[in-house]
């Protein structure tokens, strides 16, 4: 087992099994499979159906409803403070800056990871928070789809400029030298994931 082998080879590595979690991601459409539990040093690792990693809730079916629900809840709580600032008659520019720093930053955290494969309902729930902030601040705010594409473009350009990046080879120019070659995708999940979307965003920006 990889974990046990790594723990054996690393003299300074100590794994706290009580805090470790096992998350099985199986996208197969075949009948449900049964997996043996992972045991480390005689202790069974707890199996979970979702796990929060670097602020992102990852579910075993790779759906993002749990994550977007968490984002919407946090962002709605911040709307209270935005209303309080409005009641103090602060200028719209200040309200917009507050929104960008405390609400938009929540809604768009790691957006290139999950937004592409989020459902229409999840996106609408998040966008309703943006519209509420617009009504409170009396100013136009960027929609999440626009922010998503811009962040895809930004991250993709960094990868293209870095020949040492492990995924640099995915961005290959066509003979024209103006557009990047689209990636072949067999599933809708892959089509809506970061790299195909990033290439599409780059080509639209050219």
Automatic annotation (TrEMBL):
GO MF: 2-oxoglutarate-dependent dioxygenase activity; methyltransferase activity
Alkylated DNA repair protein AlkB homologue 8 N-terminal domain location: 64-105
Pfam families xrefs: ALKBH8_N (PF09004)
InterPro entries: AlkB_hom8_N
Protein name: Alkylated DNA repair protein AlkB homologue 8 N-terminal domain-containing protein
Species assigned in the record: Electrophorus voltai
